[in-house]
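> call design_seq(struct)
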């Protein structure tokens, strides 16, 4: 879909200024692919420059095991050129022989990130630079986001602003530049989810028109009869592809599966039933293979490694507020996790290190002056348990006009997907520690970006407010990326 016509004048925007008009004219004249390539290049540079020396590379080991025809990885891990051993190889599910001796380990995480690494590990083995792969794939994700937003009927300025917000104003920046096990899984999941959303939007140019009436009982009965007569007509190839890509995202981050309602509301097929069935068939293949993989390797549909790790962390880190007698997913975790997601501030003028596990005194003002990135005596530092998504990415607030004004299938589907994914993540005992910001927001960002773009369109453009919120988001995430590297997170 081509970019929509330039939006009408808005007193709050810079559109009336000569400079803004010249920039807008230049932007509209550049081919979309050229803008996308520039964004990918900028993202690659930004994601690579902060640097990282963390060696949490579980998926490299998993890919190595796959290349040898097995799921079990070598464990305990011996120090080598590929890493310092067990110190950087936690969160695994040990496998014992009949005598109780540990003979290997399984990763509890879905395996798609390891599959992505297969060609690289085939060449470089355990020395594979997983961070370089994360940076490259993260930059490509920025280009995919630009492409995906081009399926919406919004101006190019809104499309650009939303893509820039995603690339540099959300915690995706932190995830992509870090590239360690947990964050690389987010990067891979975002790749597939963005592609899924883009394919669905491309086949449904009317998705943001006023919402359809719910189907009547009579129309549902007619649909059932039609299915019985010609079941093959229920499958739309484009929506099947969107479902397949969505299922692949779930094979990297399982909680993405709760975003499935998006494909019920949005996509090709021409009806609610055809969209739903086509997407479900596409999704079922990778999700079914994931569950079959769990059964084949552990004997369980859902990997027992998660419960194993929960017991270790609940007893090993009492300061994090975990409860060993609660379930790994429990409604009782909702209040404390909601505080982290929406309200957790940074540590201001700390007199202790930002570690929630083992705080140590670092400075005693006024004898010592504070610095912006002075690890010995900082002005403020991120909290390793997480921080408010509103503080780290305030430009998410730009989606509010989409929710509060005219309803559409696009808005309903995206809002339900974001809400469902966020709710399930909030029930989880851990919210992503150790991290900058709220990393679980990466699970729903592909569905939130269309809402941000539509929200700006319903405000008649990016405007000063949009520019300001995006600029603040970028500044805060730059601050977080720098601090994450300073602190060795």
């Amino acid at each position: 879909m081509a970019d929509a016509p330039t939006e009408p004048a808005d007193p709050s925007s810079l559109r009336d200024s000569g400079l803004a008009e010249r920039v807008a004219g230049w932007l509209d004249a550049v081919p979309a692919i050229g803008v996308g390539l520039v964004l990918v290049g900028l993202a690659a540079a930004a994601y690579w420059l902060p640097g990282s020396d963390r060696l949490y590379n579980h998926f490299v080991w998993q890919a190595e095991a796959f290349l040898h025809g097995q799921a079990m990885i070598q464990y305990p891990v011996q120090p080598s050129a590929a890493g310092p051993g067990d110190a950087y190889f936690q969160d695994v599910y040990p496998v014992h022989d009949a005598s109780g001796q540990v003979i290997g380990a399984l990763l509890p995480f879905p395996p798609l990130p390891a599959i992505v690494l297969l060609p690289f590990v085939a060449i470089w083995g355990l020395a594979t630079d997983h961070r370089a792969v994360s940076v490259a794939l993260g930059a490509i994700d920025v280009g995919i986001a630009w492409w995906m937003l081009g399926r919406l009927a919004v101006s190019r300025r809104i499309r650009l602003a939303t893509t820039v917000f995603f690339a540099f104003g959300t915690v995706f920046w932190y995830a992509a530049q870090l590239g360690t096990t947990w964050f690389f899984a987010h990067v891979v999941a975002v790749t597939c989810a963005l592609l899924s959303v883009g394919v669905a939007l491309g086949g449904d140019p009317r998705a943001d028109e006023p919402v359809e009436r719910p189907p009547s009982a009579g129309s549902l009965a007619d649909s059932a009869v039609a299915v019985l007569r010609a079941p093959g007509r229920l499958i739309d190839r484009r929506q099947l592809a969107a479902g397949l890509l969505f299922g692949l995202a779930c094979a990297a981050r399982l909680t993405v599966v709760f975003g499935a309602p998006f494909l019920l509301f949005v996509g090709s097929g021409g009806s609610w039933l055809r969209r739903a069935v086509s997407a479900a068939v596409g999704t079922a293949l990778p999700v079914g293979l994931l569950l079959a993989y769990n059964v084949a390797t552990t004997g369980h549909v859902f990997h027992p490694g998660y419960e194993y790790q929960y017991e270790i962390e609940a007893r090993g880190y009492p300061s994090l507020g975990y409860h060993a007698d609660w379930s790994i997913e429990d409604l009782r975790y909702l209040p404390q996790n909601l505080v982290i997601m929406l309200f957790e501030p940074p540590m201001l003028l700390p007199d202790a290190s930002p570690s929630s596990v083992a705080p140590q005194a670092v400075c005693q003002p006024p004898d010592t002056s504070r610095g912006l990135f002075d690890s010995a005596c900082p002005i403020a530092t991120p909290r390793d348990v997480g921080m408010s998504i509103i503080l780290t990415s305030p430009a998410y607030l730009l989606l509010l006009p989409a929710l509060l004004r005219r309803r559409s299938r696009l808005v309903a589907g995206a809002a339900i997907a974001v809400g469902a994914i966020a709710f399930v993540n909030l029930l989880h005992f851990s919210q992503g520690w150790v991290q900058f910001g709220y990393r679980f927001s990466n699970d729903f960002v592909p569905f939130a970006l269309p809402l941000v773009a539509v929200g700006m369109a319903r405000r008649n453009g990016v405007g000063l407010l949009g520019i300001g919120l995006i600029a603040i988001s970028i500044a805060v995430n730059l601050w977080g990326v720098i601090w994450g590297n300073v602190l060795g997170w």
